[in-house]
Amino acid sequence: MTSVHKNKDTFFSALLSGRVSMVALVALLLLFLFSFHNSSIGLQDTRAPAWSGSFYPDNAGELAGLMTDLTRQAMHDRPDIPSGTRLQALILPHAGYIYSGLTAAHASLVLKKGQFSKVILIGPDHRIGFENAAITSFAAYRTPLGTIPIDSDSEVLGRCGDLFRPVSRSESLEHSLEVILPFLQYSLQDFSLVPVVAGPCDIHRAAMCIDSIRDSGTLLVVSSDLSHYLDYATAVK
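The chain above was modelled as a monomer; its predicted structure follows.
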């Protein structure tokens, strides 16, 4: 039995027996409401992973080991970074790791711990269908590799007219952001997150809003499969 239920049972038992003074009654009522309020907040603070165990491993040790193995494989096809340039954005795939993990692991070859303090992660809506873009109502996102705090700039996007708003059903079901996060955690380790799930929208207005919260410590990551229908040769070309 939880502490909330114990407090509730104590309160109602005492009330029915007539053994409660007015002061004690108020005190018990406040205790019950306070406990219930705190338990509700705790459930809403962090978005738990919805796709661990299917798109990627749900065990932290197994997931970290997979990241290490995929990174080792990716080193055989290390991308060339042009001299005199600065990394600002990446496109990463969001399929199950058995399909796209090796491609996504190339991020670890261009990222390192502490390189960016904030990541704006944008992915497409697969499951709900809505216009404009969805931002988070949570304070943090969690994966088997740990918890990522939501950056305060997420609230700034919420003030960009009607372009950005929470869509709770989308956030609880969408995979396009979640499956990218372990790769970013593995490489950057510590960063804050601005998650955005995009539907059809005014691209130019949305881009201006997003650009307003970017600085030299920000990495922009776009989550995309690029295509679901091209044959391999055409996709490579």
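Residues 1-20, 22-43 have pLDDT under 50 and may be disordered.
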